[in-house]
Amino acid sequence: MPKNRLNNDKKSSSVCSSLVDKYRTSIYSLICGLLILIIILYFSIQEDYIEHKKVYSYVNSLNELDNKKTLTEVSYDEDIVKIVPKELIWSEYIIRHGDSLSSIFKKKSLTAKNVIEFTSDNLSSPLLQIHPGQKIQFGFSSDGSLKKLKYIKSNKESYIYARLNGEKGASFFARKIDSSPKKITIYRDSIIKDSLFVSGKKSGLPNNIIMELSNIFSWDIDFALDVREGDKFSVLYEGLHLSEKKIAGSKILAAEFVNQGKSYKAVRYLDSSGEVNYFTPEGHNICKSFLRAPLNFTRISSNFNLRRMHPIHKKIMAHRGVDYVAPLGTPVFASGDGSVIASSYNKANGNYIFIRHGGGITTKYLHLHKRKVKKGMRVTQRQIIGILGSTGYSTGPHLHYEFLVNGSHKNPRNVTLPHSDPVKKNELDRFYRITKPLMAKLERHQKVSKLAFLSTQ
Predict the structure, then answer these.
(1) What is the pTM of this model?
(2) CA gap 117, 124 in Å, rounded
(3) Residues 59-74: pLDDT tens digits?
(4) Total Cβ atoms within 10 A of residue 227
(5) 292: closest CA among 414, 421, 422?
(6) Is the separation of the CB atoms in 367 and 389 below 8 Å?
């Protein structure tokens, strides 16, 4: 290759390199500027799209209202119309005694013309029936004109009034908002590691559902003494969706509790007469005629023992009942329906109550602080008959409870308790038709929960 050509190529390459070096910063700035411009254009298009959707939704709402022009029910979380402008200044007024719509509007610097707008045609009915304690919320635009009004009649019922196009002088239309809680079915289960209450809370059960669960199975399980680590429960219950985040427990629909390897199942049934009870899937009543323990206690200080050393007399004496320890003032319940055959006081028993039930059964309640029933009165199961105390021969606050069958003392903790009536024969078909789907749903949830648990092992 000729030398002059080689030299020319080198010179050209050198010139290009110097030009790139000279304008490198400018080139980078240009590229960055283009990228920024593309990003700005992208977000601008997105904003226009979102605004377009809002306007489209607004127009649809207007069309819908134009077609109906009457009060219609909607769900509690559905808004009525997208008002323009979006930002409103809200003011709330709580209705007082002597208030009228006119006086309330006047307090909010609104005119008689505004009152007429709300007391004509189909709008007038709800607002003409205002009562103390109810609320009216006013939505004003920045120029002080009324754009929106919400009348809160109750927790379950309210009305929203809004101008159709947000302009002054435009007509108001209204919708009724149904704020009734929505019913939902919820499933929870847990393996107990500490107590029913703690495990229930960890699984997400509301307090009232935990208490109902213990009440349902308290006929067979002593939750203060019988529950063991490894016991488990599963619950299908009805929840009430009160707001976006708040859900309240309503009632247990079906449940299973496994205690020391033994399974207990219960399903809720509302019979044709309107009476509610819990039954086994076969139709046997979960409830017994008697409570296993007639109070909410913390521990047992002395069990049924025919050869117990008496703590005060210091000699062997038969202890023909169970001593339940609980805080002073704890309510004591009648363990079953019956008649009070004794309500008195003596030196040994302190304040005491004896109740005669059907089937030759008598229950006795000793050392009460206070008696709430008198001799001859009829009592029902779970009725408060007295207050726990430490009267008579007692070393501390407790209830001495005895259970007698035909005059013979039985251990209240393990005596076989008679069942309440099962589902009536003429109700059995209806019972199975209603309860079988609930038990099947509980079992489906249990299987899914078990598979999920195994997959994490």
Answers:
(1) 0.53
(2) 9
(3) 344 334 433 333 333 3
(4) 20
(5) 414
(6) yes
